[in-house]
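User: Structure please.
Assistant: Input sequence and predicted structure:
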Amino acid sequence: MAEAILLTLLGLILLLAGAELVVRGAIKTAELLRAPAILVGLTLVAWGTSAPEIAVSVTAAANNFPEVAVGNIIGSNILNILLILGLGAMILPLSVNEQFVRRDIPVLLVATAAAWFLLSDGSLSTTDGFILLIGLIAYTGSLYLNARKTKTVDDLLQDKSPEPVTAGAIVYAAGSLLVGITALTFGSRYFTNGAVEVAMWAGVSERVIAVTLVSIGTSLPEVAASVMASIRKQPDLAVGNVIGSNLFNLLAILGLSGVAGGQLVLPETMVGPDMAVVLGAAVLVLPLAVSGMTITRLEGVLLLVLALGYLLWLLLGTESVVWPAWAFLGASVLYAAFSLTVHAVRRGKANRSS
């Protein structure tokens, strides 16, 4: 048992270190290739910061651990919203850019519903994976085109001058990528195998371990980024990190897991109740963001309470008691409908009075 725990911790350390090196190497490579900054942020950096989730889920899928592969994504998406946004809002009320409300949050809702629909037959197939990856390409392309349209002269003037191509820079970029990918490869293998061993020893299902231990471990980069963004008073970054990470988890990582795993058969609890909580958490973001375009400290506390409630529901081994998941989804939808109606009425009155 001690060896399994040490293996899991070693894997987690390698995952985090590898992710950091991949991000650095990717950014340096993009600078040397004169790639546009927006393209770097939307592709290389996004892949780098989600590298732990990618490595764990794809490795688990390839080794036929479907509950770990999909459970990691489900747990990450739930905790990103409930735990990370909750912590960030408690540190500093999170002002939400209107762009997130109009475009990114609705896209997240559509992507979540689409992923649930694809999983509704109880499996994640190669076809499902390719459909999700096509969605990722379309979304990334729309972001890139929109960024090019909205880029101002001031933005162009503030762009950094090109990175000089030197032997040292090339060695740094290549070395960071090589060492980072190697660390991710071994880290994902150790972390997945160790987590499964711990689950078997403790008599806990792979699903519970994946949605709790594995998802929390692989989400540590997002936790650190959002908390530091709140401390440094950059709320847009904190919220954008969560929304972007959740979209990437659903479209890229779930898609890659489907392609790598072939035909992953999933338990009913993961397809139904767990996905209901994922969608409920995504629905909950919209009314919180619309209410004054700010996620308040009180709302942050509410999100944390919901996160703790979800973890408690899992750890108590109450998978057979599924009504809390459906109740959460129903309550989120009703709250969203009520909040959006109130917001629309207030906005209409404000427009008429002006």
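The radius of gyration is 20 Å.
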